[in-house]
Amino acid sequence: MIKKENKYFNTTINSTKLYLEDIENIISKIENENIILEISDNENVYESIAELRSITGTNPKTIKILGTLTSSFLEYITIRITESSSTIYVHNSDTLLKPAYEIENLLISKKRKLIYSYFNSYNAKINLLCTLLIGFVVFLVCTFITKENFNYTIWVSIILLWTLIFLISELNPNSNTKIELERKHELNFYEKNKDKILFGIVTTFIGIIIGSIITYLKS
């Protein structure tokens, strides 16, 4: 029995963090005279990654790279890069399987550190919103039902903690969930954002102090 060769490939790598040089590396693996290359986002098609960057800025939400064989429009590879994951799909082509595996290995090597997979700007924002909602519900219960004192210090501290985590992770290219169309060595996080970090830390401590004062006055 003759085994039919698999000409399809589909995989998603979560929590990837890509910089300009990584995108260029992906493109170089499929860019040749036998492939028609198309670069797009959710709205427009661009001639190059440089044109996409000039129009969308350095942090696009989505990048789609499509490579179609000139010999057959039915044989193509698609790489879809978002802020949370990257997906590779090969349709009916054994020729494009080799670059697909190479790109997969590249994307696996670009996964965020485990700590950044949780402590990133997206998760911090979700936790902040959940804390605000739960805190508000607890406040209403304490005020109108149980008639107990609402612990402002604890809730304000938690809110400010997630706010600080959000600010730092959003500013830090290693922990935010953005696609970075800048080269990694050009992004010096602490030098560029030290004033904002200091402001965030000071704001957090001021908020904790204010929360403690409110709790003391209400007790």
Tally of DSSP β-strands? 6
Spatial separation of the terminal alpha carbons: 83 Å
Beta-strand content estimate = 15-25%
Poorly predicted segments: none
Q: Can you give the helix content as a percent range?
A: 40-55%
Give the biggest beta sheet: 6 strands, antiparallel
Keywords: Membrane, Transmembrane, Transmembrane helix
Layout of helices and strands:
Layout: E1 9-14, H1 20-30, E2 35-40, E3 45-46, H2 49-56, E4 62-69, E5 76-82, E6 85-91, H3 97-109, H4 114-118, H5 121-144, H6 152-171, H7 189-218
Antiparallel strand pairs: 1-6, 2-3, 2-4, 4-5, 5-6
Helix pairs in contact: 1-3, 5-6, 6-7
Molecular structure report:
By secondary structure, the chain is an alpha+beta fold. The chain folds into two domains: 9-111, Double Stranded RNA Binding Domain (2-Layer Sandwich), CATH 3.30.160; 115-218. It is 51% helix and 16% strand. The protein is built from seven helices and six strands, in the order E-H-E-E-H-E-E-E-H-H-H-H-H. The protein has a six-stranded antiparallel β-sheet with strand order 1-6-5-4-2-3. The protein starts with 8 loop residues before the first strand and ends with a helix.
Question: Which labels suit this protein?
Answer:
alpha+beta; Double Stranded RNA Binding Domain; 6-stranded antiparallel β-sheet; 7 helices; 51% helix; 16% strand
Kindly summarize this structure in a few lines.
The protein is α+β, with helices and mostly antiparallel strands and about 220 residues long. The protein is built from 7 helices and 6 strands. It has 2 domains: about 100 residues, Double Stranded RNA Binding Domain (2-Layer Sandwich); about 100 residues.
